[in-house]
Design goal:
The chain has 144 residues and is mainly beta. 10% of the residues lie in helices and 45% in strands. The protein has one domain. It has a 5-stranded antiparallel sheet with strand order 7-8-9-10-11, with no helix packed on it. The protein has a 4-stranded antiparallel sheet with strand order 3-4-5-6. A two-stranded antiparallel sheet has the order 1-2.
Length: 144
């Protein structure tokens, strides 16, 4: 699935990105922070995740100043019936869309990062919320 240029711009704007020097930026360290410049926000993938016939887009952004040890954050956006884009989930980490599903056919999202026990979010009809923790498909308890 490919997005039009107008949809690409709308996705980045809905994700809170601004364009600087031809790059889309979501989080940038202050100039006086002495931190390396963060990465460019990108549309990582586009596909219909929930079977409604409209595309979803995953926007990722990187940089340890903004996202700590994980070094990456994502936003899942969905094209609405009126043509606008809505943020469905936003988190620090690497999203993995699982076969298990929440309400309305939305896939569960495992949010990967450092460690071995990852949070899994499930769509409840209004928001993605914590449902469980898993590692390699098996439930686990995160270390405290």
């Amino acid at each position: 699935m490919k997005l039009s240029e107008a949809d690409r711009v709308a996705v980045f704007k809905a994700a809170g990105a601004t364009q600087r020097k031809g790059r889309w930026i979501i989080c940038a360290p202050p100039a006086d922070a002495g931190a390396p410049e963060s990465g460019e926000a990108v549309i990582d993938r586009v596909r219909d995740l929930n079977g409604d016939g409209r595309p979803e887009a995953v926007v990722t952004d990187g940089g340890t100043y903004c996202y700590g040890f994980t070094g990456i954050a994502f936003q899942l956006l969905s094209k609405q019936a009126n043509g606008s884009w809505r943020v469905m989930s936003s988190n620090n980490g690497i999203p993995e869309f699982l076969k298990t599903k929440g309400k309305d056919g939305w896939p569960d999202i495992s949010v990967g990062g450092p460690g071995f026990c990852f949070p899994v979010q499930r769509w409840n009809g209004k928001a993605y919320t914590l449902n469980r923790h898993e590692y390699e498909g098996k439930r686990c308890k995160p270390q405290r």
